Amino acid sequence: MLIEADGPSGLHRPSKGFHRARGAPHITLATDCFRPIFLEHHPVSDVISVLLVENDLADLRATTTILEQVPESTYEITSCNGFRATKQYFEDNPQARFDVCMINFRLNRYNGFDVLKYMVEGHQQTPCVMLTEVADVAADRRAMRMGAADYLVKGRFDSESIERVLRYTIDNARVLNSLKESEARFRSVVESASDGIVLLDDDGVLLATNRAANELLGASTKNLVGRPCVEFLTEESGAVVTEQLAGDAGYNGSTDGLKPLETHVIHASGKLVPVELTVSSWVSAGDRYWSIIIRDLTERKEMSDKLVYQAFHDPLTGLANRTLLKERVVERFRTIRHIAGTPALILVDLDNFKLVNDTFGHEAGDELLIVVASRLRDCVRDADLVARVGSDEFAVLLNGCDSLIAAKAVGQRLIDSLAEPVTIGGLPIIASGSAGVAIVASAEVTPDALFRNAEVAMHSAKANGKNRMALFEESMHHASFERMRMEHDLRETLAAGALQVAYQPVVSLTDGSVHGFEALARWTDPARGVVPPDVFIAVAEDAGLIEQLGRTVMKRAVEETAALQTRDQIPYQINVNLSTRQLDDPDLVSFTRSLLEDSGLAPGSLTLEVTESVMVGHVERAIGVLNELRDLRVKLALDDFGTGYSSLSYLHMLPLDALKADRSFVTRCNEPSGRALLRAILAVGRSLDLHTVAEGIEDENERSVLAGMGYDYGQGYLFSKPVTLLELAVYLETARTTAR
Question: Is CATH 3.40.50.300 the classification given to domain 18-182?
Answer without folding.
Answer: no
